[in-house]
Write a structure and sequence with these properties.
Largest sheet: 6 strands, mixed
CATH topology: Rossmann fold
CATH architecture: 3-Layer(aba) Sandwich
CATH class: Alpha Beta
Order of helices and strands: EEEHEEHEHHHHEHEHEEHHEE
Distance between the termini: 48 Å
Shape: globular
Strand order of the largest sheet: 6-7-8-3-9-10
Bound molecules: adenosine-5'-triphosphate, magnesium ion
Structural class: alpha/beta
Helix content: 25-40%
Protein backbone atom coordinates (compact mmCIF):
# COMPACT_ATOMS: atom_id res chain seq x y z
CA UNK A 1 0.00 0.00 0.00
CA UNK A 2 1.38 3.35 -1.03
CA UNK A 3 0.70 5.21 2.21
CA UNK A 4 2.98 2.95 4.24
CA UNK A 5 6.19 4.75 5.21
CA UNK A 6 7.94 2.10 7.31
CA UNK A 7 7.46 -1.62 7.68
CA UNK A 8 9.54 -3.15 10.42
CA UNK A 9 9.46 -6.94 10.21
CA UNK A 10 10.81 -9.17 12.96
CA UNK A 11 13.82 -6.90 13.50
CA UNK A 12 16.61 -7.99 15.83
CA UNK A 13 19.66 -5.86 16.54
CA UNK A 14 22.67 -6.28 18.84
CA UNK A 15 25.57 -3.89 19.29
CA UNK A 16 28.91 -5.52 18.50
CA UNK A 17 27.00 -8.77 18.11
CA UNK A 18 26.74 -9.21 21.88
CA UNK A 19 24.66 -6.41 23.45
CA UNK A 20 21.03 -7.01 22.43
CA UNK A 21 19.09 -3.81 21.78
CA UNK A 22 15.99 -4.95 19.86
CA UNK A 23 14.39 -8.40 19.76
CA UNK A 24 11.66 -9.20 17.25
CA UNK A 25 10.17 -5.78 16.49
CA UNK A 26 7.18 -5.54 14.13
CA UNK A 27 5.62 -2.18 13.27
CA UNK A 28 3.82 -0.57 10.35
CA UNK A 29 3.90 3.22 10.16
CA UNK A 30 1.72 5.09 7.70
CA UNK A 31 2.02 8.52 6.20
CA UNK A 32 0.76 11.29 8.48
CA UNK A 33 0.74 9.20 11.65
CA UNK A 34 1.89 10.46 15.06
CA UNK A 35 3.63 7.64 16.90
CA UNK A 36 5.34 7.52 20.29
CA UNK A 37 7.75 4.87 21.47
CA UNK A 38 8.00 4.66 25.24
CA UNK A 39 9.89 2.37 27.59
CA UNK A 40 12.39 2.34 30.44
CA UNK A 41 16.07 3.20 29.89
CA UNK A 42 17.87 0.76 27.63
CA UNK A 43 14.77 -0.81 26.07
CA UNK A 44 15.86 0.01 22.51
CA UNK A 45 14.02 3.23 21.63
CA UNK A 46 17.04 5.12 20.27
CA UNK A 47 18.21 2.01 18.47
CA UNK A 48 14.85 1.77 16.68
CA UNK A 49 15.06 5.40 15.55
CA UNK A 50 18.58 4.83 14.20
CA UNK A 51 17.36 1.79 12.26
CA UNK A 52 14.49 3.84 10.80
CA UNK A 53 17.01 6.54 9.86
CA UNK A 54 19.19 4.01 8.02
CA UNK A 55 22.19 4.60 10.29
CA UNK A 56 22.35 0.98 11.42
CA UNK A 57 20.88 -2.18 9.90
CA UNK A 58 19.11 -5.22 11.41
CA UNK A 59 21.01 -8.42 12.24
CA UNK A 60 17.81 -10.27 11.37
CA UNK A 61 14.51 -9.14 9.81
CA UNK A 62 13.86 -6.15 7.59
CA UNK A 63 13.20 -2.42 7.65
CA UNK A 64 11.29 -1.34 4.54
CA UNK A 65 11.08 2.41 3.93
CA UNK A 66 8.91 3.89 1.15
CA UNK A 67 8.52 0.39 -0.32
CA UNK A 68 12.24 -0.39 -0.49
CA UNK A 69 14.30 -2.45 1.90
CA UNK A 70 16.88 -0.38 3.79
CA UNK A 71 20.21 -2.08 3.26
CA UNK A 72 23.72 -0.99 4.04
CA UNK A 73 24.81 -1.05 0.41
CA UNK A 74 21.73 0.90 -0.78
CA UNK A 75 23.27 3.82 1.12
CA UNK A 76 26.32 3.53 -1.20
CA UNK A 77 24.13 4.67 -4.08
CA UNK A 78 24.54 8.42 -3.62
CA UNK A 79 21.31 9.38 -5.35
CA UNK A 80 19.17 6.92 -3.38
CA UNK A 81 20.89 7.88 -0.11
CA UNK A 82 20.28 11.59 -0.79
CA UNK A 83 16.64 10.93 -1.59
CA UNK A 84 16.21 9.00 1.65
CA UNK A 85 18.04 11.68 3.71
CA UNK A 86 15.73 14.33 2.28
CA UNK A 87 12.66 12.34 3.29
CA UNK A 88 13.62 11.26 6.80
CA UNK A 89 15.18 13.48 9.50
CA UNK A 90 16.37 12.34 12.93
CA UNK A 91 16.70 14.77 15.83
CA UNK A 92 19.21 12.95 18.04
CA UNK A 93 18.83 12.39 21.79
CA UNK A 94 22.21 14.07 22.19
CA UNK A 95 22.33 17.29 20.14
CA UNK A 96 26.14 17.32 20.35
CA UNK A 97 26.21 14.42 17.87
CA UNK A 98 24.16 16.44 15.42
CA UNK A 99 25.81 19.85 15.64
CA UNK A 100 29.35 19.96 14.31
CA UNK A 101 29.74 23.23 12.36
CA UNK A 102 31.52 26.35 13.68
CA UNK A 103 28.27 28.33 13.79
CA UNK A 104 24.55 27.70 14.23
CA UNK A 105 23.92 29.31 10.83
CA UNK A 106 26.24 26.80 9.12
CA UNK A 107 24.72 23.86 10.99
CA UNK A 108 21.25 24.80 9.76
CA UNK A 109 22.48 25.38 6.20
CA UNK A 110 24.54 22.16 6.08
CA UNK A 111 21.73 19.75 5.08
CA UNK A 112 20.15 21.87 2.32
CA UNK A 113 23.58 22.71 0.84
CA UNK A 114 24.43 18.99 0.80
CA UNK A 115 21.28 18.40 -1.24
CA UNK A 116 22.34 20.96 -3.83
CA UNK A 117 19.87 23.70 -2.93
CA UNK A 118 21.01 27.12 -4.18
CA UNK A 119 22.81 29.33 -1.67
CA UNK A 120 20.25 32.16 -1.83
CA UNK A 121 17.40 29.72 -1.13
CA UNK A 122 19.39 28.18 1.76
CA UNK A 123 19.91 31.65 3.29
CA UNK A 124 16.18 32.28 3.09
CA UNK A 125 15.36 28.90 4.63
CA UNK A 126 17.86 29.44 7.44
CA UNK A 127 16.12 32.69 8.38
CA UNK A 128 12.70 31.05 8.17
CA UNK A 129 13.51 28.05 10.35
CA UNK A 130 15.42 30.25 12.83
CA UNK A 131 12.27 32.31 13.19
CA UNK A 132 10.05 29.23 13.68
CA UNK A 133 12.37 27.84 16.39
CA UNK A 134 12.96 31.31 17.87
CA UNK A 135 16.74 31.13 17.54
CA UNK A 136 17.49 34.15 15.32
CA UNK A 137 19.64 35.57 18.12
CA UNK A 138 21.78 32.40 18.15
CA UNK A 139 22.67 32.21 14.45
CA UNK A 140 26.26 33.43 14.88
CA UNK A 141 26.96 31.48 18.06
CA UNK A 142 29.18 28.40 18.34
CA UNK A 143 26.76 25.43 18.72
CA UNK A 144 28.70 23.53 21.39
CA UNK A 145 28.66 26.61 23.67
CA UNK A 146 24.85 26.74 23.78
CA UNK A 147 22.63 25.48 26.60
CA UNK A 148 20.97 22.08 26.22
CA UNK A 149 17.60 23.63 25.33
CA UNK A 150 19.17 26.02 22.81
CA UNK A 151 21.07 23.13 21.21
CA UNK A 152 17.86 21.13 20.98
CA UNK A 153 16.14 23.98 19.11
CA UNK A 154 19.10 24.30 16.75
CA UNK A 155 19.11 20.53 16.14
CA UNK A 156 15.40 20.66 15.25
CA UNK A 157 16.03 23.69 13.01
CA UNK A 158 18.77 21.81 11.14
CA UNK A 159 16.31 19.00 10.37
CA UNK A 160 13.44 21.39 9.57
CA UNK A 161 15.70 23.12 7.02
CA UNK A 162 15.72 19.86 5.05
CA UNK A 163 11.90 19.74 5.20
CA UNK A 164 11.64 15.93 5.48
CA UNK A 165 8.38 13.96 5.18
CA UNK A 166 9.20 12.04 8.35
CA UNK A 167 10.59 13.39 11.63
CA UNK A 168 12.19 11.04 14.13
CA UNK A 169 12.52 12.74 17.54
CA UNK A 170 14.62 11.12 20.25
CA UNK A 171 13.61 12.46 23.69
CA UNK A 172 12.84 15.93 22.29
CA UNK A 173 11.71 17.42 25.61
CA UNK A 174 14.11 15.82 28.12
CA UNK A 175 15.68 18.36 30.46
CA UNK A 176 13.92 21.40 28.97
CA UNK A 177 12.03 24.23 30.69
CA UNK A 178 8.21 24.22 30.40
CA UNK A 179 8.10 27.00 27.79
CA UNK A 180 10.61 25.25 25.54
CA UNK A 181 8.70 21.96 25.99
CA UNK A 182 5.53 23.79 24.92
CA UNK A 183 7.30 25.23 21.89
CA UNK A 184 8.55 21.80 20.81
CA UNK A 185 5.14 20.14 21.31
CA UNK A 186 3.53 22.91 19.23
CA UNK A 187 6.16 22.39 16.55
CA UNK A 188 5.43 18.63 16.43
CA UNK A 189 1.65 19.09 16.36
CA UNK A 190 1.93 21.73 13.62
CA UNK A 191 4.25 19.65 11.48
CA UNK A 192 1.86 16.70 11.78
CA UNK A 193 -1.11 18.90 10.81
CA UNK A 194 0.85 19.80 7.69
CA UNK A 195 1.02 16.10 6.81
CA UNK A 196 4.38 15.14 8.30
CA UNK A 197 4.81 11.71 9.86
CA UNK A 198 6.18 11.96 13.39
CA UNK A 199 7.82 9.23 15.45
CA UNK A 200 8.95 10.25 18.93
CA UNK A 201 10.87 8.28 21.55
CA UNK A 202 10.14 9.72 24.97
CA UNK A 203 9.86 9.12 28.71
CA UNK A 204 7.66 12.14 29.11
CA UNK A 205 4.20 10.60 29.40
CA UNK A 206 2.60 14.02 29.86
CA UNK A 207 3.30 15.04 26.28
CA UNK A 208 2.11 11.81 24.68
CA UNK A 209 -1.57 12.74 24.47
CA UNK A 210 -0.60 15.63 22.18
CA UNK A 211 2.29 14.21 20.18
CA UNK A 212 0.97 10.69 19.51
CA UNK A 213 -2.17 8.90 18.39
CA UNK A 214 -0.52 5.49 18.66
CA UNK A 215 1.93 4.40 21.35
CA UNK A 216 4.28 1.42 21.39
CA UNK A 217 5.58 0.33 24.79
CA UNK A 218 9.03 -1.26 24.73
CA UNK A 219 9.79 -3.71 27.54
CA UNK A 220 12.94 -4.86 29.30
CA UNK A 221 13.14 -7.81 26.92
CA UNK A 222 13.67 -5.18 24.18
CA UNK A 223 10.51 -6.06 22.34
CA UNK A 224 7.10 -4.42 22.03
CA UNK A 225 4.93 -5.16 25.06
CA UNK A 226 1.94 -3.24 23.75
CA UNK A 227 0.88 -1.08 20.83
CA UNK A 228 -2.35 0.87 21.07
CA UNK A 229 -4.08 4.24 21.15
CA UNK A 230 -2.34 6.77 23.39
CA UNK A 231 -5.43 6.93 25.61
CA UNK A 232 -5.60 3.18 26.16
CA UNK A 233 -1.88 2.99 27.00
CA UNK A 234 -1.86 6.06 29.26
CA UNK A 235 -4.80 4.73 31.29
CA UNK A 236 -3.31 1.29 31.83
CA UNK A 237 -1.73 1.55 35.29
CA UNK A 238 -0.56 -2.07 35.41
CA UNK A 239 1.16 -1.77 32.03
CA UNK A 240 2.93 1.49 32.94
CA UNK A 241 3.88 0.27 36.40
CA UNK A 242 5.35 -2.99 35.20
CA UNK A 243 7.38 -1.11 32.61
CA UNK A 244 8.89 1.49 34.95
CA UNK A 245 6.91 4.32 33.42
CA UNK A 246 4.79 5.56 36.29
CA UNK A 247 5.64 8.85 37.90
CA UNK A 248 6.31 8.61 41.59
CA UNK A 249 5.54 11.68 43.70
CA UNK A 250 6.77 12.39 47.16
CA UNK A 251 4.82 14.77 49.37
CA UNK A 252 4.54 15.68 53.02
CA UNK A 253 1.05 15.48 54.54
CA UNK A 254 0.79 16.62 58.16
CA UNK A 255 4.51 16.16 58.59
CA UNK A 256 4.35 12.62 57.29
CA UNK A 257 6.12 11.77 54.09
CA UNK A 258 3.87 10.22 51.51
CA UNK A 259 4.90 8.57 48.27
CA UNK A 260 2.43 7.68 45.58
CA UNK A 261 2.22 6.90 41.90
CA UNK A 262 -0.28 8.37 39.53
CA UNK A 263 -1.28 7.93 35.93
CA UNK A 264 -0.28 10.72 33.55
CA UNK A 265 -3.93 11.54 32.84
CA UNK A 266 -4.95 11.42 36.50
CA UNK A 267 -5.28 14.66 38.51
CA UNK A 268 -2.55 15.32 41.06
CA UNK A 269 -3.29 15.47 44.80
N1 LIG B 1 26.96 1.89 21.25
C1 LIG B 1 26.50 0.87 22.00
N2 LIG B 1 27.30 -0.18 22.29
C2 LIG B 1 26.85 -1.24 23.03
N3 LIG B 1 25.60 -1.33 23.51
C3 LIG B 1 24.76 -0.31 23.24
C4 LIG B 1 25.17 0.84 22.48
N4 LIG B 1 24.12 1.69 22.39
C5 LIG B 1 23.11 1.10 23.07
N5 LIG B 1 23.49 -0.09 23.57
C6 LIG B 1 22.65 -1.04 24.35
O1 LIG B 1 21.46 -1.29 23.61
C7 LIG B 1 20.32 -1.30 24.45
C8 LIG B 1 19.29 -0.32 23.93
O2 LIG B 1 19.83 0.99 24.01
P1 LIG B 1 19.06 2.28 23.52
O3 LIG B 1 20.00 3.42 23.58
O4 LIG B 1 18.41 1.98 22.21
O5 LIG B 1 17.92 2.37 24.63
P2 LIG B 1 16.87 3.54 24.92
O6 LIG B 1 15.55 2.88 25.09
O7 LIG B 1 16.97 4.61 23.90
O8 LIG B 1 17.38 4.06 26.34
P3 LIG B 1 17.27 5.56 27.00
O9 LIG B 1 15.87 5.68 27.51
O10 LIG B 1 18.24 5.48 28.12
O11 LIG B 1 17.63 6.57 25.96
C9 LIG B 1 20.83 -1.01 25.86
O12 LIG B 1 20.86 -2.22 26.58
C10 LIG B 1 22.21 -0.43 25.66
O13 LIG B 1 23.08 -0.80 26.72
MG1 LIG C 1 17.47 6.61 24.00
Amino acid sequence: MSDIIFEVKDVHYSYLGKFPALCGIDMTIRSGEKIAVIGANGTGKSTLLQLLDGLIFPDHGQVIAFGERLLEHSQDNEKAAHRFRQRVGLVFQNADIQLFCPSVREDIAFGPLQFGIAEEEVKKRTQEVAQILDIQHLLDRVPHQLSIGEKRRVAIASVLAIDPDVYLFDEPTAGLDPLTVRHIIDFIVNANQQGKTIITATHDLHIIGEIADTVYVFGRNKSIVRGGSSESVLNDRALLESNNLLHIHQHCHENREHVHQHLPLEPHN
